[in-house]
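[step 3/7] fold_predict: job queued, chain A
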Amino acid sequence: MRSEKLKKQGKRRKAGGRNLKAGVLKIVFISFLLLTSHFLLPTSASAERIKDIASFEGVRDNQLLGYGLVVGLDGTGDKGQAAVQGIINMLKRMGLTIKTEDLKSKNIAAVVVTAALPPFAKPGTKVDALVSTIGDAKSIQGGTLLLAPLKGPDGKVYALAQGPVSIGGFAVAGEAAAVQKNHATAGKIPEGVTIEIEPPFILGNGSDIRLFLHKADFTTADAVSRQINDTLNGAYASPLDPSAVKLSIPQEYKDNLVGLITKVEMLSVAVDMPAKVVINERTGTIVMGDNVKISPVAIAHGSLTIEIKERPLVSQPLPFAPEKAETVTVPRTDIAVQEQKGSLVEISGVTLGDVVKALNALGVTPRDLISILQALKASGALRAELEII
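[step 4/7] structure written:
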């Protein structure tokens, strides 16, 4: 009896050991799947907030424009009578009458004042003013802008501008030399504009509102619509065109439009960027997007240098030459042509890193690289839009 009990206990221990080993193997296998899935699953594309790639209809700046006078200049104002006449008209409205010939000063400059009226601006809000001369003033350094009304396109006055002008530099001159930093005829008045009237604005039409993309793209507009619908659990958004998305206001947000806009703005959407290469020929700057690709192609590029030198010689008559002999200039031109040898180099690339490595392998200057990119585009090997600015 005792031996049978020992045999049963031994079998139980072996079964428990096998179960323990199986459990350990399951844990190890699950851990392996978790680790491998971390590396095998595709990584999500970089996403941007809707707030950064689009704006709601009507949420925009409005431009203001006005005419003003800058006074207190040190003899660097307008030479003509336009600015003086403006001061005389202003003093006349204040009850002072002065003749034009009695006020001869170069300390006044006529200027144009511009400012941007931000959306939802309330009376008392302050913004910056830009001041630019319209006459022959040499500098508005140290000047002060007198009170100037700023009007919108509808002709109504929405703000007033006044204050000391800062040009962010200097302009000094002597009898034979002058030194200048930045433009002395244009300046800025930080927070020099005070909003007086709130512009009329209606956010949406009560039932829907439109969302405008900063960069028109069919794929991005569709992605924005799907992301909004998934978040709101309904078919509320639909793309109208590559740059606009129509959003119907849900019933629960009829009285909380700000909450709806806040929720939509914080959503993240994968932005599809077109393949583009931007070239600035003036500075030799080249900017490539991430989707730029180059089909396999061979390139041979060599620079051509042509040097032309003019060395005219003067031929004078010899002593005791005939009276008709004259001194003449004999043209001498030296031309040197040098062309570097170029061998075929195979380049290709399916990623931005491959493209950069392939183009760097040519060992050319940015100016030559611009010519190569233009030739690649003409041949069809460059699979990207080429934009020259």
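[step 5/7] annotate
Residues 2-40 form the longest helix (39 residues).
The CA atoms of residues 206 and 255 lie 10 Å apart.
exit 0
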